[in-house]
Amino acid sequence: MKNFFKNYIAALYFTTRFFMAGAVVVSLMVIRFFASWLSIIPFIALLLFAGIFIVEYILLFRKRNAVYAQRAHAERFSNGDENEVKLFIENKYPFPVYADIIDEIPIQFQNRNVHFYTRIHAGKTSVIDYTLRPVKRGSYDFGKINIYISAFARFIERRFSLDRANSVAVYPSYLQMRKYQLMAINNRLSEAGLKKQRRLGHSMEFEHIKEYVTGDDYRTVNWKATARRGSLMVNNYVEEKSQPVYCVIDKGRLMEMPFDGLSLLDYSINASLVLSSIAVQKEDKAGIITFSDRMGTLLPADKRAYQMQKIQEVLYRQKTRYLESDFEKLYITIRNKISQRSLIVLFTNFASLNGMQRQKAYLKKIAERHLLVVVFFQNTEMKKALEKEAANLKDIYIQTIVEQFEFEKKLIVQELKQEGIFTILTPPQNLTVQVLNKYLEIKARQLL
Questions:
Q1: Where is the chain membrane-spanning (predicted)?
Q2: Is residue 205 within 8 Å of 243, Cβ to Cβ?
Q3: Domains in the chain and their CATH numbers?
Q4: Angle, nearest 10°, between helix axes 307-316 and 264-281?
């Protein structure tokens, strides 16, 4: 009895068409009391209405497992990117059906309107594509696929609630990482907005002697080899390799500020993953350091094949601490744990000039032993407020305060530059390109 109710009663839903047709039949019955000329027309309409209902009910409910559905997506989702999800809906009825599909996506998206409508031919499968953009790392749980099937008249629907619950982990933006990796392999990084860097001089890493071709630098001519071969030969140099590159990520409270859904911490994590992958691709060693009020993870720089997997796992686990970051502990850790001169890319955020000045002494000490690049963020919402035309006195006050904040950010850049510290002040959405440009510039200028 319980199964009968579940399969044949609870699964029955009346559509808007059913109620509209019922309203027409009832209206005809009422009108017949005042217009006898309608005769048996209302009764014919009632019989037709009941007949369609019975036929459609029999067609929809005579087969138990009449619909099959499956959800397909990548094993991992990429944070901040559009991730494709496919729904495969198979119609096992011997006639075409109309399908109203609701997919129960993870609660993190706060969206209860993942709703699709399609017509599926007999014995065929319909494929529905949609995308999801997560903005936080972690585990996401999908629920059921609910399908409401109707037949020719669409008076009633039969609900199929298929349990397709599964979990997917959202990792730092590996799709962005792969995009830049492919561009680097094909020498097409400029398409992503990266500047071509002119190499100044030559590194000390000699590779081989080769025959001169048009465009080679005359300063690299090897005269001894030219005399021996009787043709112009040049020395070929490569960029220095195995240089340590550390992405240092601040997990303090200021890094939880959101822009376009993602926090500054997640922007920094995504940029760190891309920078690390490009560094390893260029045969440098990549490492990760995280800190807040206490030290977090320290993954030593390496360039072996499994290093990128270790970096992804480390970045996946990072969370904001919501406390003031301790730059003194960071300096002590770098001094004690990193002996070789390295490129230190510090992702942080300064709320004010005073906030930076409290940490400047530690930044200077790090810069004495390593090549330090401090990355912090422009507030794009403040920039929008500046671009708006002031309509009243309140708007003028707001714009004055915003201008003060923007001016302080520029002062921070100038003070750090005076101390010989490289700086990147960037909107969050341009972070990855700006960081890669700075890394390529440092490699081209042989500063490390």
A1: 12-34, 40-61
A2: no
A3: 2-61 (no CATH), 72-146+161-171 (2.60.40.10), 206-237 (no CATH), 241-445 (3.40.50.410)
A4: 180
